[in-house]
Design a protein that fits this description.
Blueprint (H helix, E strand, L loop, with lengths): L1 H11 L12 H13 L7 H17 L5 H16 L4 H30 L9
Organism: Kribbella kalugense
Keywords: Signal
Protein name: Small secreted protein
Length: about 120
Protein backbone atom coordinates (compact mmCIF):
# COMPACT_ATOMS: atom_id res chain seq x y z
CA UNK A 1 0.00 0.00 0.00
CA UNK A 2 2.92 2.36 0.61
CA UNK A 3 3.94 2.02 -3.03
CA UNK A 4 0.41 2.87 -4.12
CA UNK A 5 0.51 5.93 -1.89
CA UNK A 6 3.87 6.88 -3.42
CA UNK A 7 2.40 6.50 -6.90
CA UNK A 8 -0.48 8.76 -5.98
CA UNK A 9 1.97 11.26 -4.52
CA UNK A 10 4.03 11.30 -7.70
CA UNK A 11 1.02 11.82 -9.90
CA UNK A 12 -0.45 14.46 -7.63
CA UNK A 13 2.72 16.25 -6.63
CA UNK A 14 1.43 19.11 -8.69
CA UNK A 15 -0.80 20.20 -5.84
CA UNK A 16 0.71 23.36 -4.54
CA UNK A 17 0.50 27.02 -3.88
CA UNK A 18 -0.03 29.02 -7.03
CA UNK A 19 1.33 32.51 -7.28
CA UNK A 20 1.54 34.98 -10.12
CA UNK A 21 2.32 33.28 -13.41
CA UNK A 22 4.52 34.94 -15.99
CA UNK A 23 5.48 33.05 -19.10
CA UNK A 24 2.44 32.90 -21.33
CA UNK A 25 0.51 29.82 -22.31
CA UNK A 26 2.82 27.32 -20.64
CA UNK A 27 2.28 28.84 -17.20
CA UNK A 28 -1.47 29.15 -17.76
CA UNK A 29 -1.65 25.56 -18.96
CA UNK A 30 0.49 24.44 -16.03
CA UNK A 31 -1.98 26.05 -13.65
CA UNK A 32 -4.78 24.04 -15.30
CA UNK A 33 -2.73 20.88 -14.83
CA UNK A 34 -2.20 21.67 -11.15
CA UNK A 35 -5.94 22.22 -10.70
CA UNK A 36 -6.76 18.91 -12.42
CA UNK A 37 -4.27 17.00 -10.27
CA UNK A 38 -5.44 18.47 -6.97
CA UNK A 39 -6.81 15.73 -4.69
CA UNK A 40 -6.48 13.20 -7.51
CA UNK A 41 -7.52 9.64 -6.67
CA UNK A 42 -5.11 7.48 -8.68
CA UNK A 43 -7.68 4.66 -8.65
CA UNK A 44 -10.26 6.84 -10.44
CA UNK A 45 -9.42 6.41 -14.13
CA UNK A 46 -11.82 9.22 -15.13
CA UNK A 47 -10.02 11.68 -12.85
CA UNK A 48 -6.66 10.43 -14.12
CA UNK A 49 -7.99 10.97 -17.64
CA UNK A 50 -8.85 14.60 -16.90
CA UNK A 51 -5.38 15.15 -15.43
CA UNK A 52 -3.89 13.40 -18.47
CA UNK A 53 -5.75 15.73 -20.84
CA UNK A 54 -4.30 18.71 -18.99
CA UNK A 55 -0.80 17.18 -19.05
CA UNK A 56 -1.07 16.80 -22.83
CA UNK A 57 -2.14 20.43 -23.15
CA UNK A 58 0.80 21.56 -21.01
CA UNK A 59 3.26 19.43 -22.95
CA UNK A 60 2.31 21.18 -26.21
CA UNK A 61 3.22 24.58 -24.77
CA UNK A 62 6.19 23.37 -22.68
CA UNK A 63 9.67 24.75 -23.30
CA UNK A 64 11.75 22.50 -25.55
CA UNK A 65 13.98 21.43 -22.66
CA UNK A 66 10.92 19.97 -20.86
CA UNK A 67 9.21 18.20 -23.79
CA UNK A 68 10.84 14.84 -22.92
CA UNK A 69 9.96 15.24 -19.24
CA UNK A 70 6.32 15.89 -20.07
CA UNK A 71 6.34 12.83 -22.35
CA UNK A 72 7.42 10.73 -19.34
CA UNK A 73 4.59 12.21 -17.23
CA UNK A 74 2.04 11.56 -19.98
CA UNK A 75 3.22 7.99 -20.56
CA UNK A 76 3.03 7.34 -16.82
CA UNK A 77 -0.45 8.84 -16.50
CA UNK A 78 -1.68 6.83 -19.51
CA UNK A 79 -0.47 3.63 -17.85
CA UNK A 80 -2.13 4.67 -14.58
CA UNK A 81 -5.39 5.32 -16.42
CA UNK A 82 -5.13 1.96 -18.24
CA UNK A 83 -4.81 0.24 -14.84
CA UNK A 84 -8.45 1.27 -14.21
CA UNK A 85 -7.95 1.45 -10.46
CA UNK A 86 -6.42 -2.03 -10.17
CA UNK A 87 -4.16 -1.75 -7.13
CA UNK A 88 -1.82 -4.50 -8.30
CA UNK A 89 -1.34 -2.87 -11.71
CA UNK A 90 -0.75 0.51 -10.07
CA UNK A 91 1.82 -1.02 -7.73
CA UNK A 92 3.55 -2.67 -10.68
CA UNK A 93 3.59 0.68 -12.48
CA UNK A 94 5.17 2.34 -9.46
CA UNK A 95 7.89 -0.34 -9.48
CA UNK A 96 8.53 -0.31 -13.22
CA UNK A 97 8.35 3.41 -13.99
CA UNK A 98 8.96 5.12 -10.66
CA UNK A 99 12.61 5.77 -11.47
CA UNK A 100 11.62 7.59 -14.68
CA UNK A 101 8.88 9.82 -13.32
CA UNK A 102 10.83 11.27 -10.39
CA UNK A 103 13.59 13.05 -12.37
CA UNK A 104 11.03 14.23 -14.93
CA UNK A 105 8.88 15.80 -12.22
CA UNK A 106 11.96 17.34 -10.59
CA UNK A 107 12.85 19.11 -13.85
CA UNK A 108 9.25 20.25 -14.36
CA UNK A 109 9.02 21.43 -10.75
CA UNK A 110 12.21 23.48 -10.97
CA UNK A 111 11.16 25.15 -14.19
CA UNK A 112 7.65 25.81 -12.87
CA UNK A 113 9.06 27.59 -9.85
CA UNK A 114 11.75 29.51 -11.75
CA UNK A 115 9.69 30.61 -14.75
CA UNK A 116 6.05 30.48 -13.72
CA UNK A 117 6.32 31.13 -9.97
CA UNK A 118 4.24 27.97 -9.37
CA UNK A 119 5.25 25.64 -6.55
CA UNK A 120 4.88 21.93 -7.23
CA UNK A 121 5.96 20.46 -3.90
CA UNK A 122 6.87 16.84 -3.35
CA UNK A 123 9.20 16.24 -6.29
CA UNK A 124 12.24 16.01 -4.05
CA UNK A 125 13.71 19.28 -5.24
Amino acid sequence: MRKLAALAAVVTMSVGTLTACSGGNYCDNLKGYVDSAKDLDIKNSDAVGKMLDQAKKVSKSAPDDLKDDWKVVIDYAEKAQDAKGDTNKLLELAKSDGDKITPAMQAITKQAKDSCKIDLPGAGN
